Amino acid sequence: MLARALIERKRDGGRITPAEWRTLMSQYATDEVPDYQMAALAMAIYFNGLDRDEIGALTDAMLHSGAMLDLDHLTMARVDKHSTGGVGDKVSLVLAPLVACLGVAVPMMSGRGLGHTGGTLDKLESIPGFRTDLSLARATEQLERIGCALIGQTREIAPADRRLYALRDATATVESIPLISASIMSKKLAEGLTGLVLDVKRGSGAFLPELDRGLALARTMIALGADHGCPVVALITAMDRPLGRACGNALEVEESIMALRGEGPPDLMKVTYALGAEMLVLAGVATDRDDALRRMEVAISSGRAAAKFQEIIAAQGGDPKVVDDPSILPQAAECELYLAPRDGVIAQVEPRAIGRGITELGGQRTKVEDGVDHSVGFVITARPGDIVRAGEPLATIFAKDRAGVDTGVAALRRSIIIGEEAEPPLPLISHRV
Ligand code: URA
């Protein structure tokens, strides 16, 4: 009865009280409220929004629908990074070991790829043996021992959000700032953090492409963090082109390993260092962002960051030799250069079309239950603004067979647009909130 009354009230522009949110979400987590009622409520929220207090109450209700990591006994600061997602965004793979090797605990809980964006869990699982399904007890033990755990949202964490997020995905109600903020922050607050850094993407490949919506999302999540005594800093970064060159699970792991060895592409390093600097300052490990940058550069040049990645991989059942020898990652059977079809300027490297191309190659899911071919994807060397000649290599396609190569060629024709001139790309890092 409660659910029906709340749907009606929200449909008509009314407010839901904190006690009502708590009852509703705990009933939803235990299957007492059916999906069809929650779908109707999500749609009412999509159209009528939630005020600031309701967003806080919904976040709390989802957070308390499950367990939390209890890390108060750790002497180290606990800081995580969350990205709103994109194509080629492998920052987490570089950042987690880099920040952890500098004395910050990083309890990083990530998601799987869905739609055109990739997911950190899928990338990590291309490392032979790597397990992301750690229990909370095991993740806590690993954090105490080596300062980092790279895990998925367990069944214990924010179960109401877990169920609601899947439902929103199926009912076209994901793109609501109140719902996104509450969803992300309920999981992040369950990690027991002392600080959080957000990478909010903008541009055609972002979840919310418009800058004003990205800023609104960032400000809402910062306020939710403040309610829980968790300082949050957000950077707005570009997703009008892929980040780095590699797009596809195993290919991105390889590029991340190169980054940890000091050979990462400049755009990936710039975003990683900017987010890492915020994490180290929030943790109190660095005095300011310049100090943080120096520490990160030394961690990479000395091999400490790469060694920490090996330690994390070994702790989670993976083969740590991958850091010295990335050729043990799954390899695609076919590998072919994609050549410029004509002379001109690279006007666009469109991330959504690339993400869809990876899905067509089998490297990302269309449904949660789909499997993933970790080996496939693209390495794209062409950047917007480059002047190219017909026949010049722009990218490499990695596919499981010849038909896959043809699929990859078609996807790159749609993604890499050659014209007479290029629009200036978005600034890589445009705002700090
Ligand atoms: N990621 C989440 O975890 N939740 C959302 O609502 C959107 C992105």
From TrEMBL:
Q: Which reaction does it catalyse?
A: thymidine + phosphate = 2-deoxy-alpha-D-ribose 1-phosphate + thymine
Entry keyword Glycosyltransferase: yes
GO term, biological process aspect, one: pyrimidine nucleobase metabolic process
CC annotations in GO: cytosol
Keywords of the record, alphabetical order, are: Glycosyltransferase, Transferase
One GO term in the molecular function aspect is:
thymidine phosphorylase activity
- Taking every annotated instance into account, which residue ranges of this chain make up the domain Pyrimidine nucleoside phosphorylase C-terminal? 345-419
Report whether Glycosyltransferase shows up as a keyword of the record. Answer: yes
Enzyme Commission numbers on file: 2.4.2.4
Sorted alphabetically, which NCBIfam families does this protein's record hold?
PRK05820.1, Y_phosphoryl
Listed under subunit, the entry gives: Homodimer.
Q: Which family does it belong to?
A: Belongs to the thymidine/pyrimidine-nucleoside phosphorylase family.
Q: What is this protein called?
A: thymidine phosphorylase
